[in-house]
Amino acid sequence: MVDVVCIGAHPDDVEIGMGATVAGMVRQGLSVAIVDLTNGEPTPFGTPETRAAESASAASVLGVTRRTLTMPNRYLFDSVEARTQLAEVLREFRPRLMFAPYPSDAHPDHIAASAIAVGARFYAKFTKTDMTGEPHYPARLYHYIAVHLALHVKPSFIVAAEEGDLSSKLDAIRSYRSQFEANERNAAIIGTMQTRARYWGGLVGAPAGEPFFSPEEIGISSVRDLV
């Protein structure tokens, strides 16, 4: 069992979209699992073995559990089979919170991953099913931004991050050398992620931050939660 499951289409999606928040949750004592729907390969400078080692290194930096599923990179599609595969993981991990990719993107895999996550959350509570595990319904689902579009969407909330959380995010991204250091087209990602984190953090008076989006209204138990 874990407190939080963060879902990505590929290894590095969660790190890019919400790595500082993951680091912060772990620092605060929450147990977090990253679930990659695909292994992310093929890519120009990667291999399945390289990508597995890189994603394990990134998980170690963030202090999380990681699970990589067997769905096909580049051909990810929302289907009963995909929802069921992820739902079984949710029934195993039994998180209270889920994070998934933002539903609008240029990358079809990211769009599909968002839809699969929404469907799997619902499937996970089924009774009278052949799925393994006991029924479970994560209480909340939020979306993070890790998109290939130049979007600036007003978030539902921004998670403030400490300097150490941002450093952990950037170090986790650096773990993916085949995707960024070895690929000149992606080499600027570290600086870009740092700039964006500073921007979002500046909006809430923090060293860094990351935006999130909720399909449902958010309730709080005390106005102290707003401080």
Write up what this structure looks like.
The chain is α/β, with parallel strands linked by helices and 227 residues long. It has a single domain (4-217), classed as LmbE-like (Rossmann fold, 3-Layer(aba) Sandwich), CATH 3.40.50.10320. It has helices at 13-27, 48-62, 80-93, 108-123, 163-174, 189-203, and strands at 4-8, 32-36, 65-68, 97-101, 140-144, 157-161, 208-213. Strands 3-2-1-4-5-7-6 form a seven-stranded mixed sheet, sandwiched between helices. Helix 3 (80-93) packs across helix 4 (108-123) and helix 5 (163-174) packs antiparallel against helix 6 (189-203). The longest helix has 16 residues, at 108-123. The protein is globular, with a radius of gyration of 17 Å. The relative contact order is 0.18. The model has no long low-confidence stretch (mean pLDDT 96).
